[in-house]
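Ligand: flavin-adenine dinucleotide. Inputs:
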Amino acid sequence: MDQISRILRNDEMTAGYRRLVFLAPDIAKSALPGQFVHVQIPGLRDRILRRPFSISSADPAAGTVTVIFKVVGLGTTELAKAEPGVECAVLGPLGNGYKPVPGTVPVLIAGGYGSASTLFLAERSKTPGLILMGARTEHDLILRDEYQALGFRLLAATNDGSFGRKGFVTDLLEEALGSVPAPAVYACGPRPMLFALGRLLEGRGIPAQLSLDQHMCCGVGACFACVVKLKDADSPDGFRYSRSCKEGPVYPAEEVYCRE
Ligand SMILES: Cc1cc2nc3c(=O)[nH]c(=O)nc-3n(C[C@H](O)[C@H](O)[C@H](O)COP(=O)(O)OP(=O)(O)OC[C@H]3O[C@@H](n4cnc5c(N)ncnc54)[C@H](O)[C@@H]3O)c2cc1C
Ligand code: FES
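Predicted complex:
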């Protein structure tokens, strides 16, 4: 559904990252972890092209939806300027969500702002588990306190070694999987990270779901701008295309064609 939503808060969390809270009761009521909203940016001349953001929290009682975003370009720079009280059209909740696997311990794996998506899952999770975070530097390891407040154990990796292990978040995988009895993996982050993770998990029988962050246009399945490759043994190329805004963004890891 498309809702005209009032911005209640738009706060800087740390330089370049913001937390935006909308009043959007209908979206808040039905939102599931892993779903996203498509936001028309107030003040942007080209208002047709919306920007997708994961729902990082939803409070059905208060009617609020929270997204956490990184300022990267024109749209997010404009969104950063939107004051509380400003209204904008918000379409959602869109896409499918993570499907919690009963009887397992959640192992969340987040690269960069991917932790905004998995936070909603942590919030709704009945059992706290592990959060593995990876980013370029300590500054980009956002939401650490929020996960720990929810009882999640944090393992982190940074490319420059400024916090946690020096390297990639996938370097933490074996330690994480070895430390919980029945893990189920839920991951969100840049494509190379998710593909590496998908390949590392291949054939291991560990339930895993990947939330693919693909550039989007319409957000509702009409334009095919957001296609991702899924494995398809019947196709001569070994893959078929899927619209990630409609059939995704979350897919079972074993279905994703984890090669460029
Ligand atoms: C399902 C989904 C959920 C998302 N959730 C979040 C979120 O919770 N928080 C968040 O900060 N961002 C999220 N994103 C990414 C966000 O939509 C883009 O960063 C945003 O649209 C960029 O808009 P812009 O106009 O500022 O940047 P543009 O000027 O359009 O682009 C600036 C730079 O960002 C890159 N970029 C644009 N779109 C994406 C994208 N989808 N993925 C990676 N790089 C991109 C461009 O290639 C370019 O380098 C999500 C994207 C998808 C598809
Ligand atoms: S963004 Fe248009 S089909 Fe997915």
